[in-house]
Design a protein that fits this description.
This protein is of the alpha/beta class. The protein is built from nine helices and 14 strands. This is MBL fold metallo-hydrolase.
Amino acid sequence: MKRYNVLILLLSILIVLFPFGTDLKSNPIEKGILKIHFIDVGQGDSTLITIDDKSLLIDSGGHAASEKVLSYLKKEGIKKITHVVATHPHEDHIGSMELIIDNFKIENFWAPKVTSNASYYNRMIKSLKRKNLKINVAKEGKIINLHPKVKCEILSPIKDNYDNLNNYSAVIKLSYNKFNFLFMGDAEGPVEGELTERNDLRCDILKLGHHGSNTSSSEKFLDSTLPQLAIASCGKNNNFGHPNKKVINRLENKNIKLYRTDIHGDIVFGCDGKSLMKIN
């Protein structure tokens, strides 16, 4: 009888320590793994960055991509977004932003100090007001507190006024140990010049400015960033010719590997602080 009681006790302890049905691989949160998701939103931009239980969403894609972005975030187990950045008020970057705001709990919202009369921008502002969310001004020197091990800094806009709305784009540099990632929004040549003069832009992954347009990614800028990999977020057979052939040639000449959402679909990289790996 005593032996039976001991067996029951041992079994109870094992059940507490190792509950039936537990599968560690199914845990959506992998401790210390930084994941960067370049979501295929067609001709637009949306990037999800996660580490532990923290998340950063840079742009939402256009309205046509709203179902894709919402389902992608839910598939990744996102219920709360720590930081959302609307890089600049163009439809292909913030056209789905109202739905992101309406469907997720957002802790911090960032955008440059520039407005638009467009209906998609006004809908975004109305959604922010409904959720009592204030806009943190995205500008040079601001720090996005994403995670204790990750440095996330806004490098631009630098000036208060630009001739082109693209150049108001919030440019973000993210660093995890020795690995650096640069997200350019739609920033063009003039901003690239400003950034090159003021910052160390070396990075492992460069999200090309303006979808790989020839208005961005100049020779000088690529020489200052020296990425291993470049990402062009663009739509299949888009009318703009993105990514531009001249940009593709520049990347090839510098042995920078190019990934494109129009060809590769969703592109995901993982980084544990010691190595960088392509997940899909």
